[in-house]
Each structure stands twice: as C-alpha cells, then as structure tokens.
Amino acid sequence: MRPLSSFFPVLDWGRRYDRHALTGDLVAAVIVTIMLIPQSLAYALLAGMPPEAGIYASIAPIILYALFGTSRALAVGPVAVVSLMTAAAVGEIAAQGTAGYVAAALTLAMLSGLMLLALGLFRLGAFANFLSHPVIAGFITASGILIAASQLRHVLGIPGGGHTLPQIAASLWRNLPEINLPTLVIGGGSIAFLFWVRSGLKPLLRRAGLGPRAADIGARTGPVLAIAASILAVVLFDLDAHGVAIVGDVPRSLPPLTLPSFSPDLISQLFVPALLISIIGFVESISVARTLAAKKRQRIDPDQELIGLGAANLGAAFTGGFPVTGGFARSVVNRDAGAETPAAGAYTAVGLALAALFLTPLIHDLPKATLAATIIVAVLSLVDLSILRRAWSFSRADFGAVVTTIALTLLIGVEAGVMAGVLVSILIHLYKTSRPHMAVVGRVPGTEHYRNVLRHEVETQPHVLALRVDESLYFPNTHFLEDRLAELIAERPALTDVVLMFPAVNDIDLSALESLEAINARLRDADLRLHLSEVKGPVMDRLERSHFLDELTGGVFLSHHAATRALARPGNGGNDGVEEHGLYVI
Amino acid sequence: MRPLSSFFPVLDWGRRYDRHALTGDLVAAVIVTIMLIPQSLAYALLAGMPPEAGIYASIAPIILYALFGTSRALAVGPVAVVSLMTAAAVGEIAAQGTAGYVAAALTLAMLSGLMLLALGLFRLGAFANFLSHPVIAGFITASGILIAASQLRHVLGIPGGGHTLPQIAASLWRNLPEINLPTLVIGGGSIAFLFWVRSGLKPLLRRAGLGPRAADIGARTGPVLAIAASILAVVLFDLDAHGVAIVGDVPRSLPPLTLPSFSPDLISQLFVPALLISIIGFVESISVARTLAAKKRQRIDPDQELIGLGAANLGAAFTGGFPVTGGFARSVVNRDAGAETPAAGAYTAVGLALAALFLTPLIHDLPKATLAATIIVAVLSLVDLSILRRAWSFSRADFGAVVTTIALTLLIGVEAGVMAGVLVSILIHLYKTSRPHMAVVGRVPGTEHYRNVLRHEVETQPHVLALRVDESLYFPNTHFLEDRLAELIAERPALTDVVLMFPAVNDIDLSALESLEAINARLRDADLRLHLSEVKGPVMDRLERSHFLDELTGGVFLSHHAATRALARPGNGGNDGVEEHGLYVI
What we know:
Two copies of one chain form a homodimer.
Chain A: H1 4-7, H2 10-13, H3 19-47, H4 51-68, E1 75-77, H5 80-91, H6 99-121, H7 133-156, H8 165-175, H9 181-207, H10 212-219, H11 222-237, H12 264-294, H13 302-318, E2 325-327, H14 328-336, H15 343-358, H16 368-380, H17 386-394, H18 396-411, H19 414-434, E3 438-443, E4 450-452, E5 464-469, H20 475-490, E6 497-501, H21 510-525, E7 529-533, H22 537-544, H23 548-551, E8 556-557, H24 560-567
Parallel strand pairs in A: 5-6, 6-7, 7-8
Antiparallel strand pairs in A: 1-2, 3-4, 3-5
Helix pairs in contact in A: 3-4, 3-5, 3-14, 3-15, 3-16, 4-13, 4-15, 5-6, 5-12, 6-12, 6-13, 7-8, 7-16, 7-18, 7-19, 9-10, 9-11, 9-16, 12-14, 17-18, 18-19, 19-20, 20-21
C-alpha cells in the first residue's frame, strides 16, 4: 500500500517546516504576487474571460496544487497555450462576454480536472507520453504564433476574431481601416518597452549595483511598469474617450463559489477539448516540474502530478476560474525569488486574494492593448522554429511529424494540430518497426564475434545462414522476416541450416510466435533446420509457454559462436551436430 | 530497374512451358472446374448476388491473376469471408435482387482492385501486416459463425436477413413459424451428407482401391453429388410448387462486359468497406500463397501479389462479378489435382466459361437450401475458437485483441471487427513499448559479463549506476527512462557516474535524443556524469548527427566492461578516468 504522504505530499514537507523556510517562502510570495497580477489579467483576456477570472484562477489552484503536487517550485495558474485552447474550445459553444461562455469555461476546467484526477488515480500518466517531443515543440511554436496573431487586434484597437491563422489574418485585414491610433501608440509602445526590458533592463540594473538574482527579478517587473505607465496615460489623457479599450469595472471580491454546468450536451461537446487541454497542460507542467526538480535531485511522480493538477483544475472550476496548469515563467520566478516549499504558493494565493479584494479598482483604466502587448512579448519566446532544422537533420520521420503538427495547428486549429501530431508520430513508429534492420552475419576471423557481412570482412559457410534481427518481433514486422528469409534461402541452394540471432529481440507477440512456427514448418518442408541463438530471458520465458521449442527442428544456443561451432562440420546434415542446447538467461 | 518479368511473371514460366506441364494443367483444370461450379454459386448466394455472378467472378479474375500473380498454385475467385463482407457493405446501399445492388458490387470490386493495384505499385504491401495473426484468426472465426448463421434461413426456408449475430438471431426467431418442411429436409439432408463426405467418403474410396490423392479428390466431389441429388429431388417431387426456393432462370452467357458506377456518392460510401475487403482479401490470399509456395522453396512477392489481386478484382468489376481473392480450398484442389503452372487457371477459366454457356439450364431447379448447406459445412471449418486458449496462455495482450475482434465482429459487424482489432493491437503494442524492461546490472564475479542485479549474484559499486535498457527509445517511453533514472539516482546518495547500456536499443528518435540531452544536463546539474556503453552502429550514426556526443559529460564505451574498468577507481570523481572512448560499430 502507498503511504498516505504519497497522496498528500504536504504531510512530508509540512512536518519539517521551520523559520528559515518561512522567511524564504514569504519573500518569494510577495514578489510572485506582483508578477502574477498582470500575467493573470492577460491570460484571462486571451482565454476570452473577464479579467478577474485570471486572478481567481490563480488562487484556489495554487493552494490545491501545494497540497497534492510533488514539485516544490511549480506555480499553477493560467498559462498561454492552455488559455488559447480554452478560447478555441469555448468559442465554439458561446460568444465571449456571455454568461454561457463563462459557464462553459468552468465546465471545461471541471472536466479537465476530473480527467487529470482519473488518469492520476489509475496511474495512467504514461498516456501523455504519446505526445512526442517534436510534436509538442511544433505545437507550442504554432500556438505561440496563433496567440501573438490573435492579440494583434487589441494592439491595433480593431474588432475581430478567429481561431486559425487564415481566419485571424482575414479578420485583421478586413478591420484594418478601423485602426485606433491612441491604442496603437499604447500597444506598440508597450511591446517596444517590454522587448527593451528583456534585453536592456537587466544589464542596466547590474550596472546600478544589483546582484544577478535581484537584477533578474527586477527585469521581470517590466509588465508591472508597463501597466502602471499605461494606466497613468489613460487617466491623464482621457484615452478611454478616444477609443482606447480598457478593462473597465472589475468586481472587488474574493474568488466566488461557482457551479459548473452539468448539462450532458455541454459535457459531450467539451469532452475532447478537455482531454486535449488536460494532456497538453500536463505535458507542459511536468516538463517544467522535472526541469526545476532535477537541479535539487528531487523526484517528480507523474501520477501524483496528475492528481495535483486535477485538484487545481477542480478548484478553478468551483471558484470562477478556467483551465490552469503549471507555467514555466511563474515557476521560475517563484524559485528564483527564493521559494523553499509549496507553502510559498499558499502565501502567493493570500497575496492574490488581497489584490482581488483591494486592488481591482486600480486596473479599471488599464488598456487591453497593454495586456495584449505583454502576451505577445511573452509568447514570442515560445516560438522556436529551430525544431524544424533540428528534426530535419536528425530524422525525416520526426521532421514529418513536426511539419504536420505546425501546419494543422495554424491552418485548422489547436485540437486538429495535437491529434494529427500524435497520429503521425504513431504511424511513423509503426512504419519504422514494420521494416526492421536485419543483417546476415559472419564470423570476424579468429574471434568469437559475428558481424554484418555487408559492413565487415567476415567468414561464412555456404550451408549455414545466420540472420541477426535488430528489432522486437511483433505483428507489423513478422511477414517482413518471413519474406526476407524466403528471399535469402532462395538465393542459397546449398543451405541446410538457418540460425536466427536474437540478441536485440526484446519481445515476441503471438503473431511473431505463429510466424516463427510457420517459418520452422516451411523450412522443415524444404529440408532445412531452424536454430536460434542469443535469445533474451524474457523472450525465452515467453517461447517456453508455447509448443514452439518442442517443434523447433534445430537448437537454441547460448551464444552465436556455440551455434557456429555446432553446425560447422564437413558434411553436416544430420541432427547429431547439435550438442549444445544452452539457454541465454539475462 | 525491375525486369519486365517481375511485373509479368508469365514471361518467366511461359517461356519454359512444355507438354508435361500442359497435361498436368489440363487434368487439374477439369477437376477444379467441376469443384468450382457449386462453390461459385454458393458464394454468389452469400454475397447476395445472382448465381451466375459467382461463375463470372471466377473466370476473368483467374486469367488476370495467372498473368500478374506470383503464386504457381493460387486459385482466385469468390471466397466466403470476402463474400460476407461484400453482402454487408452493399446491403447498406441497395436491396438484394435490385440492379442497384449488382452495380454497387461491381463498384466495390473496382475500388478494391484499384486499391490493391495502388498498394502494389507503391510497394506498400506491408500495410496489410497491421492485421496481427490473432486478430485475423479471431476475425475469420467470427466471420465463419456469422456466415453459418446467415445461411440458416435458407436451410429453414424462411425469409430474414441481418448482418450481426443479434440481428440474424432475432430475424430467425421472428420467422421461425414460417418454416418450410421440404426445404428443411433438403437442406438438413445436404448438411448431414456433406459432413459424412468429409469424414466417411475418403476412407470408403481408399477401401474401394483408390490412391490417397484420388480418394482426396473424390471426397471433394461431395458438393457436386449433393447438388445433383437435390436437383433430381426437386424435379421428381415438384418441390418448387411446395415452397422450396430454387435458383431459377440463369442466363446462358459468357461473362458479360459490365461497367461499374463511377458515382462519387457511391464511391465515398464504399471507400472504407473496399479498403477493408482489399486488406482482408490480400491477407487471406497471401497466407495461402505462402503456404503453398514454401514446400517448393518458391518465393511470393507481396507487392506483385497485390498487383495480381488488383487486376483480378478489376477483371471481376468489368465482367459481372464481385470482389474476389485467392481461396484456400480452391487452391489446394488445384495443386492436388496436379496443376503445374498458372496456365491451369486459364484452362479452368475456359471450363467455367463453357459451363456458363451450356450448363446453366441444369441448375434451374437447384434448391438454395443445398447451396446454403455447402456454405455452412465449408465455413464451419473456419471456426476455430482454439485461438482464444492459445492467446490466453501466451499473452493477455494478444488475448484482449482477439476477444475484442470476435465480439465486435459478431455484435456490430465485420467492418467494426476488423478496425477494432487493428486499433487494439496497435494500442497494446504502444502500451507495452511505453514501459520497457530495464535492468540495473552488475558484474558476474570474475567475468566480463554483466547481468540484472535482481536475477543474479553480481558485483556493483556504490558510485556507479549501470542501467541496461531493453527497448528502442522513442517518444512513448522516453519519460519512463527519465523517471526511472531519477528514482534510481534519488536512492543512491554516493553516486558519481551513470552508465546507460544500449545493446538492445535498436533505434532512437528525436524525442529520445532530447530526453537523453535532458538527462545529461540534469545529471550535470547534480554533479553526475553520464556514459553510454554498447551502443549499436545505426544508433551511433544517428547520435553523431546531433550535438549530444559533444555535450555528453562522460564517455561512450565499446563494451560495458570497458566502462566499468574506466570508472572503477578509488576516489574516482574527475573526468580523467575515462581513457577509453571507443565506438561499437556493428
């Protein structure tokens, strides 16, 4: 049985909590709270939700993850890609700004939470692994492009929408005449300022005498400065009256208790999007958690992470939020600010709750263009087309998967992109393993080593064919072995013995067993004997569960050299040559 | 470039054709023609086609396969499972007995022919391998049950229909009161007679002095005898007037030239069924061809077989037939009757053409119950539930695939059964390879051999962790390796060096490369060095296309023993211990 603390990691670190940890956690919480306010507002905008939802979505989830998650530094809340996917999924069901939209987002968070919990309780975290790295990289890059494109209209001050690149581009083009100059000045200025902050502010702070870590944190205040400055500009020049869209009234409230819709119709419509959001969110979060944990030799339990993220999303669903996951930027800030334990997250939650109660009037005049600018600058760091070059140079198969994912995400949408990426990756794997590498081997003269006859100068005998199979045998490739053997045998009229060398055969399924039985029977009909050499322990165990070894016309040899010695006799033909019948147990 | 004779195998054997081969082929053709007449009529009934279509479907396809196919003994024509699938697919589109039904069957044959040709020309025969043996065995067994059940109504003389077992059973039950006694006597009598022929006639013929081969062929005339006797019974007792359904008027004609429909609607409706029929037909045919070829050490070229079967189906589509493939029963008769070359098939075609011209009036009074009886007796030999026991004892995964296939074929239909079988097989494979076997290894004392520490008494060192990975590394299992390593490292505080042993890693994809890079970076952050040992040639080639080897903190060792020697020093910690950096090229 698993100990209780494996379900509630808080029981583990909570017991050792001391004053040193408390100080570190409190300092980190203050810094992270300040960072999270603009980020939360921006991702709420991206998800099509009211701004306060972004703050609500950062409070309960942070606390719940702190209770159930295994990462010490992960900060959970709204993140760019999941917010985009939320907008795409919920946008199919209701119009932004309606009560139906908010209700659907809550339901999406609930479904995603339940799925993550279920995957975690059944310990099925491995399912997320069917998203290959290149597919994820391609997807994140394409999502970054989509997000940046979708926010351009806020910077230009024009209406518009769309969930694919062609839709967004067409909408931008159509509405371009309505461009609002004050909005463009604020939005463009914010983008320029934020880019400068990234490259210029940190060196400036270092020269001003700050330490590297403090300079790093100082440079991350860029969004806060941009927001303060643009609020000031709106108030001073009455830009609201000049057509600059502002955030407007935000309720002063703790996160409200909300009830997601349980309508079966809505649930069935949101099922697939929720699954994809869960998997993408989990994959993103766990890769952040692993990266952060590795430096401290801490361990991340994927199944427990699923439970932590599931609880966080359920929390978001019942407190006015929307789907959340562990984000890279917020987690790094958290760690760099000196967070010692998950309690830092809980303190951050308190900070955000205070902000939701007392600071929301301050953001009434915040221009949406500034929020869009922070999103654009943040997501452009996600866009990394170098994956294309990397994949191309490493393998054409991976390249195909990446290109498919990027193209479909941009042209058809995020859901199609993810699903196509998974499908293409699996098909490529099946295709590759369906035509395994096999080598006819011969003896390196004077040694007990056997190598590919095509790559090396080796000795072979006309009456023995030795074929090394470099792949597990399973249904897609069994006929390939049969056909290859038939071809090799047809070329060798003097043949009396065939040895299959299995050092790299890790598994055999029933198809492969039947194929081996067929090969054995066909060789027997053609007066040829079949031998095996260097069979692995688990494969041998499996073969012993069938009648194959009883029917095998030849022997099973510990080493390939033993097979060669047994068969290498002048006039060899009878069965008496096979003296050695050892098993190679690993 | 491929020689012309590889596209037209006839150019190869045709050149060596002599009097001996001619005699053998002619004798076989006469025997096979007699066998094929009842079989062709019966499968036409099963496919829901007019009886003469069965004979037409055996003429052009036989000739076209003889020109393009590679098997010397394969006989192509209507077979049970493909006829059932035809009835299921076409039955969705038109009612049996209508012109639309026949037209749809022609279109289905054309689509199937084009798909087979395309797969052959693009050399994609390997696609058929995604049907695993257990899935095929389950599917054939379930199809046999469905076919036998579907023919019961003809034996009982009642109306009915249905394409799933529950539908067929319900229809039988509903119509049972309408049972026709004379039909039941003829049908039941035929079944009893045919079963007796299978078991009793051959020994009788042997005792009567016939040789084993002649007795075998004699025993196969059972269906012809049953048909002759039941026609006689109908004529003598005027059973037609007593409600016994008979075949009725069959036109006396050579195969007509027919044009399939090119309606896009029809084509899109039949696309998936045509693909499944093509694959099932190909899989059945090639397994027959391989079995027949093996005894003579002949080779079957799967891609050329696709072309041969594609041509045969196109022939069926344009001469009044329906989808065809290579059948086991007819091929065995053909071979046992002494066929020497594919020309025997051509002579059989001539015999069937003569039968279509002159013998069709004779079958006017043939009861459908007798044809149904021949089908039932023939397909019950396909039903082999032993695959369930076999799969259960060999592996639970294979068992799951078989049960799913059988259940879905019986309950939902042939198409759902095949597709679910393929899907389940692939998922099982992905699941298995996503959690590969890995073993921490240690040295067998006094040797250079390294074995699993859990299975053997071996020596290990506290500062070195050696992990053997027994699977190719690709996206579903890379995180598994990361997590397992993190776990092992967390347990070993004294660790300084990690060696990954790769003798059974046959391939590495980009996800796995990135995972190895992440592992290397994380270990470096934790002051651990990463080494590789016994990396295979192709994997090494691939790693060299990336920067991984430049960044690797440790070495790559020819043998695992070399790694152990290099690392096994007191106070080992620096990088200078790694002197050997050889590559293991296979």
